[in-house]
Specification:
The protein is built from eleven helices and no strands. The chain is 77% helix and 0% strand.
Length: 275
């Protein structure tokens, strides 16, 4: 008879089998299709993060969060980084106006709620929109298929090496399952895999070279685990195991993209620096 770990693993594998083809499909389609996919993922994540803070006793504005995320992704698709400063200013002003009204209706946490609303909008909408910016670069499909697999490779390496050799915790008060062996194993696997992917893509896009894979694999695998730790910090403060139960065996959408949010912004910056 299967134990709970076997059942959970099977659920995780089924979800992965669904997620990867869907992500690849929209990545290949690009344009407004990729925009719609990214926006939907970020909007669901916005609801999940709003839900966590509601569980914690706070009252951020779900409407402002969702409208802000959609506004940022639409702007990034239409105009790139142009006009983003005006949109950010509007988000801050609207959020403050909404929470002033909430305080007038006797809300007791309006000042903190205002900061949470703005923070969630920027965390998800601003960072997540860099995936759209990356896809819209010349050769954007191949950059997307290099940067985000680097995250997955680091996760896989972290899981494998952590299970085999993990003894020393990195930050047990934040994420007790993360070990130094897993962290360094993830870096090694991400570098090796990213070099292989870059070498393959070089045949199709000559501007992508092995050095790109080395640098992206190295930087992404070193830095993006902080996104995972950051989400663990939020969940641990409010005693929440998963952001939701949308994905069996994985939790919520945000549980799957926490490191990818970092990868989107860092990867975009690396591509600009490398090219």
């Amino acid at each position: 008879m299967a134990n709970n770990n076997d059942i959970t693993l099977r659920k995780r594998l089924v979800v992965i089998d669904i997620i990867i083809p869907i992500t690849l499909l929209f990545g290949f389609l690009g344009g407004w299709y990729f925009f719609a996919f990214v926006t939907a993922v970020l909007l669901i994540s916005g609801w999940e993060l709003w839900r966590i803070f509601k569980i914690g006793g706070y009252g951020p504005s779900l409407a402002v969060i969702l409208i802000a995320i959609a506004s940022l992704t639409v702007a990034r698709q239409l105009w790139g980084l142009a006009y983003n400063d005006l949109i950010l200013a509007a988000i801050v002003l609207v959020a403050m106006a909404v929470h002033l009204a909430e305080q007038q209706r006797d809300a007791s946490t309006s000042a903190v709620d205002f900061m949470i609303t703005v923070g969630v909008a920027l965390y998800l909408g601003w960072l997540g929109s860099y995936a759209i910016s990356m896809r819209n670069l010349p050769g954007g499909l191949y950059w997307v298929l290099l940067v985000f697999p680097a995250v997955s490779l680091a996760d896989a390496g972290g899981y494998i090496f952590g299970r085999l050799f993990g003894r020393h915790k990195i930050a047990d008060k934040v994420s007790p399952n993360k070990t130094w062996a897993g962290y360094f194993g993830g870096i090694v696997l991400s570098i090796i895999g990213s070099i292989g992917i870059a070498a393959l893509f070089h045949v199709i896009v000559p501007s992508i070279v092995i050095l790109d894979g080395l640098i992206i694999g190295l930087v992404i695998s070193i830095l993006t685990p902080l996104g995972d730790f950051g989400e663990s910090m939020l969940k641990r403060q409010f005693g929440v195991k998963d952001t939701s139960n949308i994905l069996p065996g994985h939790g919520g959408i945000l549980d799957r993209i926490d490191s990818s949010l970092w990868a989107a912004a860092i990867g975009y910056a690396l591509i600009l620096l490398l090219k």
